[in-house]
């Protein structure tokens, strides 16, 4: 299958997931209290929205760069890509879960763990797809990429997933620390010096 068809389908999933994120930010009902206070009270939704939006956007950039390296897509790559898209599609749910429970007296630790774990799963899914392309089907790479550089891409990708694992573990202690770590990763990879397209990929957002 051509990379164009896979990329077009994937772009649709990314676009829907990133759009659904905003649905968790609600317009305060008139007469429910001071508007400024009502808007400020939704800060967990704003924070989770920004972090998830940036993370999905960065994975989308990575995904584009990954598919542009190969001349065509084989069946295992399509399956791995579907698993990646499945992990992306669940992010609106985990984002809403984090926003809803962050300030609650119970459930906030589990919600934060689920939220950061969803990013970890997405990063690992991307890493598995990228590894298959770079090593199992290196014959499809166009132009060819030296082995040393391919190894460096995978190492950096694995490194990008470590903070999410840390965030999932630390969520048991503080959901705010977990959220801060996820936000820090998103901001880091959004900076110009941490380019995710050239010369190396960041396999997680």
Task: Give an overview of the whole structure.
It is a single chain. The chain has 205 residues and is mainly alpha-helical. Helix content is 70%, strand content 0%. The chain has helices at 3-20, 35-40, 43-67, 75-89, 91-101, 108-136, 147-170, 175-190. Helix 1 (3-20) packs antiparallel against helix 3 (43-67). The radius of gyration is 18 Å and the shape is elongated. Residues 196-205 have low confidence and may be disordered.
Helix vs. strand class: mainly alpha
Give the distance, in angstroms, between the N- and C-terminal Cα atoms: 27 Å
Average pLDDT rating? 90
Give a quick account of the main beta sheet: strands, pairing sense, barrel closure.
Answer: none
- SSE pattern, N- to C-terminal: HHHHHHHH
Sequence-ordered SSE layout with sheet pairings:
Layout: H1 3-20, H2 35-40, H3 43-67, H4 75-89, H5 91-101, H6 108-136, H7 147-170, H8 175-190
Helix pairs in contact: 1-3, 1-4, 3-5, 3-6, 3-8, 4-6, 5-6, 6-7, 6-8, 7-8
List keywords for this structure.
205 residues; disordered C terminus; mainly alpha
Summarize this structure briefly.
The chain has 205 residues and is mainly alpha-helical. The protein is built from eight helices and no strands. Helix 6 packs parallel to helix 8.
